[in-house]
Amino acid sequence: MSVPLHYVVKTRLVELIEQLGEGSGLPPERVLAKDFGVSRWTMRQAIRELIADGRLRARQGQGTFVATPKIVQPLALVSYTEALRAQGHVPAREVVKFDEIPADDVLAEQLAIAPGDPVFELERVLFADEQPIGLETTYLSVARFPTLREVLDATGSLYRCLTGQFGVQFGEGEELVETVIASPREAELLKATQQLPMLLLHRQTRDTDGRTIEVVRSLYRGDRVGFRATLRP
């Protein structure tokens, strides 16, 4: 089976990336194409795939650089803040939306409330080392957490607030991971292009009594974040 030329070039570029090291600038596309003996189109395709893979990062007006390693998040019921700090990163959040909305039929069933009951919708951009890596939208029952707006530092840890202010004891959760393309709004918030692959996580978290605490939709940049799970028989 023949191997596409751009894949061969991509493999050689990976070797070059490893030699250059993190943060180093890649030679211009035209120079690389000449050195590798391929067309600029072929070189451009290989570079685009390495950007999507998270190995390279393009900076508008500056060039293409060797990217830092991806942040690996555990698929577990842990605070985003604590998980990033444990890896030596500086976490931050920016609130995009914190509203009350009526629950539709699906959300009402997930939260075990009646359709039309008020629900908090908390949407935040997630940052690591001042770079946007994710967009998280959390839904919680207003009846269960009536003072959430008053007690929550929306730029801090929601889990810490739920545990400390409401006595929530996290039990278990279900998470579905899929790949998607960001909407124009999502891409803008994450400072990404719509062509960049995204990882979408749907999570439903329950307490130790089996009651649903939250429903979460998290969108992560595929070039900056990966996920790890511990599997046991």
TrEMBL record:
<dbReference type="Pfam" id="PF00392">
    <property type="entry name" value="GntR"/>
</dbReference>
<dbReference type="InterPro" id="IPR050679">
    <property type="entry name" value="Bact_HTH_transcr_reg"/>
</dbReference>
<dbReference type="Pfam" id="PF07702">
    <property type="entry name" value="UTRA"/>
</dbReference>
<protein>
    <submittedName>
        <fullName>GntR family transcriptional regulator</fullName>
    </submittedName>
</protein>
<keyword id="KW-0238">DNA-binding</keyword>
<dbReference type="GO" id="GO:0003677">
    <property type="term" value="F:DNA binding"/>
</dbReference>
<keyword id="KW-0804">Transcription</keyword>
<dbReference type="InterPro" id="IPR036390">
    <property type="entry name" value="WH_DNA-bd_sf"/>
</dbReference>
<keyword id="KW-0805">Transcription regulation</keyword>
<feature type="domain" description="HTH gntR-type">
    <location>
        <begin position="3"/>
        <end position="69"/>
    </location>
</feature>
<dbReference type="InterPro" id="IPR036388">
    <property type="entry name" value="WH-like_DNA-bd_sf"/>
</dbReference>
<dbReference type="InterPro" id="IPR028978">
    <property type="entry name" value="Chorismate_lyase_/UTRA_dom_sf"/>
</dbReference>
<dbReference type="InterPro" id="IPR000524">
    <property type="entry name" value="Tscrpt_reg_HTH_GntR"/>
</dbReference>
<dbReference type="InterPro" id="IPR011663">
    <property type="entry name" value="UTRA"/>
</dbReference>
<dbReference type="GO" id="GO:0003700">
    <property type="term" value="F:DNA-binding transcription factor activity"/>
</dbReference>
<dbReference type="GO" id="GO:0045892">
    <property type="term" value="P:negative regulation of DNA-templated transcription"/>
</dbReference>
